[in-house]
Design a protein that fits this description.
Elements lengths: L1 E2 L2 E4 L3 H22 L4 E2 L6 E2 L5 H10 L6 E5 L5 H22 L6 E4 L6 H6 L1 H8 L14 H6 L3 H13 L11 H7 L2 H4 L3 H17 L3
Helix pairs in contact: 1-8, 2-3, 5-8
Length: about 220
Amino acid sequence: MTYLSWAVLYEGDSDAAYLDLLVPRLIDEILMARGRGHSTIPAAPALRLRRGAVDEVAREACEARDAFYLVFVHADTGGRNLEASLETRASAYCEAMHALCDWPPVRCITISPRHEVEAWILADSQAVTSALGYNGSPGSIGLPTSAAEAERLPDPKAVLSGAVDHVRGRRRRIDVKQIFPAIAQRQSFATLRQTRSFASFEASLLAALADLGSI
């Protein structure tokens, strides 16, 4: 049996709270549907890379390269005007790893939600209301009604915070990232695929798994 261990480079702790569950869930679903042989995905990353200069991150990853098969590099795009530059920045880590230790570029996968990771979180508003224990309609607490609408939001972080405050009330405020794992556990991948940025991420992941011979 092959354990498809993985490494990550995240923007911050809140992103880790969400993506640490979403990434292995997605890979597990892909392997169940299309897997070849006996491969499984560990629930936690084998290595958390420390954000820093590109060459330093690449060196850290290359020194531990025997511990993982896949690398995920997360960078929020910040909107249309910044998408090109931030996508280039995320890809720079992959290019540096390839130059330093011949790491296959196809197995270095960028995670680039439109604007912020909250755009993916809001793409499945039913998962958000379920995690909050809210029985009303998503629209009644200001949540988008479709995945495409979520991806167009200029400030998805503020929309999510507003919905949480509406349900919990100001006296019961929580750190929003506390509910990220519960949302990630409930989300429908069919719904997430309706956002262009998630569909692009999954396509890159499928290419990486195919390169490994896992699918």
